[in-house]
Amino acid sequence: MTTSEQFNPAEWVIDHNDRTALSIRIKGDRLFCEQSPYQTVEVFDTCDRGKMLTIDRMVMCTEADEASYHEMLVHVPMLTDFKIKDVLVIGAGDGGTIRELVRYQNIETITMVEIDEVVVRAAKQFLPTISSAFDHPKLKLLIDDGIKFVKEAADHAYDLIIIDSSDPVGPSEGLFTKSFYQDVYRCLRPGGLITVQSESPSFNPKAFVELNQCLKQVFGNDQVHCYLVFIPMYPSGMWSLTYCSKQGAHPLKNFQRDRAITFAQEQNLTYYNADIHQAAFCLPTYIQKMLNEA
Amino acid sequence: MTTSEQFNPAEWVIDHNDRTALSIRIKGDRLFCEQSPYQTVEVFDTCDRGKMLTIDRMVMCTEADEASYHEMLVHVPMLTDFKIKDVLVIGAGDGGTIRELVRYQNIETITMVEIDEVVVRAAKQFLPTISSAFDHPKLKLLIDDGIKFVKEAADHAYDLIIIDSSDPVGPSEGLFTKSFYQDVYRCLRPGGLITVQSESPSFNPKAFVELNQCLKQVFGNDQVHCYLVFIPMYPSGMWSLTYCSKQGAHPLKNFQRDRAITFAQEQNLTYYNADIHQAAFCLPTYIQKMLNEA
Question: ipTM, 2 decimals?
């Protein structure tokens, strides 16, 4: 039996809005804290989820749960039948997305644009299993503004663009706008794909619905596919990612299931498997309605 | 930007273990509080999830999220091809499981055994949309100990038994034991089905794994099928249910998909649809390993 009175918030890191909060218990001293020009970056050691990176006290990742997010963001587009050679990643400062991308021999170049070098530095120092691929020869890491980068990037330069952003407050706010996605669209080759961190239908319903509308306006209604991932250490535990194509591969009709089965086994993935690839696109009816009736 | 210091726990109901906590903001005064012989039953009004029932400060349901749980507990077994006439429900004091069961014409009798009349009374008074079927003519509601009830029940009396329990502390502890499930098995007709609230792989990993092992011992390894539901207002948001059969219908191979599509539309269900029925059984790889390596 537990009561509010027994709960001492001093030992907990709390990620909350004004209606719901997720608290994760920490142990020992805070490992890292630095105020960058953009945000406060911190690393904690949790009681049972490993090390945890937060930005402005919003959970970015924990060692125990990060694979769910990073695997689903990367392997869903990579295991369609579209040939992907050149990848652009916006955000992704902890490095988990890069770690998943470098599993693929067919990728030739990865350009990553992260605005805040403090996030990269904190991840390199305290989250070595997540940031393990920052020295990979295929990676070109730029500390720069992703919005400005895509505005200035050449047309048709990338096969896959991954927008691995934090929530739409602070420096990530511009990553949730139509003008940004119009630039993203322009930079994609014909048939190119994107995957996007698209917020929680429960914890951030407004941002979730608005981003989906924005993506439909840019890519077309039938080219935008929302999918869900269980991430217990994000508030509500129900997080969405969104897959879009530039008139290209459908995430299920063009899914290479046999290749996915082999790949997931050989790579010893944690969350992703061929069944989950397909299941993640099956949305509860009320979430379908949120998106279709918006 | 938020910090722990700005978080005032007095306005929040907090469901937590010693490592993770989910807090739900409440408004106004507590609507109901009664200490029964078994537990403390309370009803609150939340800021955005509607009314909420808690037992010993563990969230049982909120009006906004309860359909996810109740629909998945009931419609998954009901939409296989096994003919179900007589149903036994253990627990389920809020009434949501009964509300879903009475949608089926083919069900002839529903026997519900809830140990604590206070839960039923609180639900009737404050959660009318959940407790709406307590007066249904097919329902026989007994306030009694479910463990004792199944011990004394006749062999082969039920086609479907639903164990809709709270967590394995207090009066529900005995609902997580092998001897209870041996009685449940005996009371099932040949081919009979059960569905069980089987805890969170993230928030209660030990109870989750142990209950799965227990069910496999009683029903046989190939008759036990775990499935997952997003329930944002339960800690971690990732909750499991388990489907078992007495050498009967497989939840996917014997799934009546066309009937499920029609049923979900006609009944205007909130979470359940035919795709979700199938998707819910696709488990992330690490959860498969938790169950297979236990």
Answer: 0.94
Q: Are residues A150 and A269 in the same domain?
A: yes
Q: Are residues A186 and A281 in the same domain?
A: yes
Structure tokens at B27: 């408004």
d(CA B219, CA A96): 41
Confidence class for position B4, pLDDT limits 50, 70, 90: very low
Cα separation, A211 vs A195, whole angstroms: 12
Secondary structure element (H or E) that encloses residue A15, with its range: strand A12-16
Q: Is the pTM of this model over 0.80?
A: yes
B50 and B74 share a domain?
A: no
Residues of B in contact with A172 (CB under 8 A): none
Tell me the nearest-neighbour CA distance from A26 into chain B, angstroms. Answer: 8
**Residues spanned by the domain of A149:** 66-292
Let me know whether A74 and A136 are in one domain. yes
- Distance from chain centroid for Cα A214: 18
The rounded distance, in Å, linking the Cα atoms of B284 and B275 is 17
Same domain, B8 and B133: no
B227: left (phi over 0), alpha (psi -120 to 50) or beta: beta
Residues of A classed as catalytic: 164
The pLDDT tens digits of the residues spanning B107-140 come to: 999 999 999 999 999 999 999 999 999 999 999 9
Please provide the DSSP assignment of A278-294 as one string.
HHTT---HHHHHHHH--
Are residues A161 and A267 part of one domain? yes
Judged by CB atoms closer than 8 Å, whether chains meet at B57 and A3 is answered as yes
